[in-house]
Amino acid sequence: MIVPNAFSPNGDGINDQWRIQALETYPEAIVSVYNRHGQLIYTSRGYSKPWDGTFKQQPLPTASYYYIIDLKNDFPLFTGWIMIIR
Questions:
Q1: Structural domain containing residue 12
Q2: What is the mean pLDDT of the chain?
C-alpha cells in the first residue's frame, strides 16, 4: 500500500484527491483524518471514494493533517501526515 503525503485539491484535475493505492483491497479498512487540534475531519470505512480535502463540504486550508489507517486485519496501524496544498 502506498500512502501519498500530499495532494492538491484545487480543481485542476491533477492530484485533486488523496488516492491511496491498493487500499480498495481492504474493504473493512477505516481511514480517519484529523486536523492539528485533534478534530476528526474525515472518516471512511473502505475507501471506494478518495478524500477530496473537504470537511462538511467546505474546502480545507493548506495545512498538514494527521491520518490513521486501520486495515482491520491484525496489521499495525498506518499513521502519518498528509499535506493539502492549494
A1: 6-84
A2: 95
| pTM score | 0.93
- Tell me whether residue 58 is in a domain: yes
- How many domains is the chain partitioned into structurally? 1
Q: What nine digits make up the cell of 67?
A: 491520518
Q: Cell for 55? A: 470537511
Q: What is the model's pLDDT at position 15?
A: 96
* Distances in whole angstroms, Cα of residue 23 to Cα of each of 37, 61, 82: 26, 25, 16
Which parts of 1-86 are beta strand (E)?
6-7, 30-34, 40-45, 54-55, 58-59, 63-70, 78-84
Query: Cell digits for 71?
Result: 486495515
The pLDDT value given to residue 48: 86
pLDDT on residue 1:
84
Q: Which helix (H) or strand (E) holds 21?
A: none
Examine residue 1 and state whether it is found in any structural domain, yes or no: no
What CATH number is associated with residue 66? 2.60.40
